[in-house]
Amino acid sequence: MKGGGLRIYAILYLIFLYAPIVLLPIFAFNSGTIIAFPLKGFTTDWFVQAAENLTLRRALSNSLIIAVCSSIFATCLGIFAARASTRFEFPGKGPIVGLIMLPLVLPEIIVSMSLLVVLLSVGVELSILTVIMGHTLICIPYATVILTTAFNSLDRSLEEAAYDLGETKWSAFRLVILPLVMPGVISSLLMSFTISLDEFIIAFFLAGKEVTLPTYIYSQLRFPKQIPMIMALGTVLVVLSIVLLTIAEYFRRRGVARTGGKDSGGFL
């Protein structure tokens, strides 16, 4: 009886969690403009409208630029943080690592407002660049966690063997360590890209006159006739996010298996 109750609870929880995602493609291919049952018919017109919308394409272009730059910056900084935290002991290590992870527990609206006040106070004009800065900040903790797992899985004897063979610290890192953690680097890039692409609050506060994909979607929700096109766009984004997260998890597990480490869990 107890096991049956838990099973029912788990099923209801999964339905509550994933039903909205399942409804996205259903209404995205529905020919009716009203989001309600019964469905009118099958159509792909909303996807065509989304592809032909110039403002949407500009928003998508901005979001892709922001996501690519943010993922690269966050991963590079994450490599430094993960390498330092797993390889070296230094005063204040615990508080410093905690400070890096702080954006994980802070509400994004607090982070956004703080960044907005700081940037405006120093005279920085709001643009795509400020959004990249904000997204890099919130992606660094995720990148650091992924890369810390990758560095922890390394066999230190390989690094020591490189030193014994005459390699410098930089050449050992470039030729031995970095190739071994490359699956973790790729996983970090993909995860950070997905987080940045889907992020709304920081983009809303810091984009200024520029439009990003999430802010564009938010602005179109006021117009009922645009809802089907937004559903089509949401379907594409969900599929893209699932694909990217699946690839990221594949590379994470590949990295753990390659280094012979223990898998402590992942995204999927």
UniProtKB/TrEMBL annotation:
Keywords: Cell membrane, Membrane, Transmembrane, Transmembrane helix, Transport. GO terms for biological process: transmembrane transport. It is a multi-pass membrane protein. One of its GO terms (cellular component) is plasma membrane. Residues 60-248 form the ABC transmembrane type-1 domain. The chain crosses the membrane at residues 12-39, 59-84, 96-122, 128-154, 175-207, 227-248. SUPFAM superfamilies: MetI-like (SSF161098). Pfam families: BPD_transp_1. It is found in: Cell membrane. Belongs to the binding-protein-dependent transport system permease family. CysTW subfamily. PANTHER family: PUTRESCINE TRANSPORT SYSTEM PERMEASE PROTEIN POTI. This is Putative spermidine/putrescine transport system, permease protein. It comes from Paracoccus aminophilus JCM 7686.
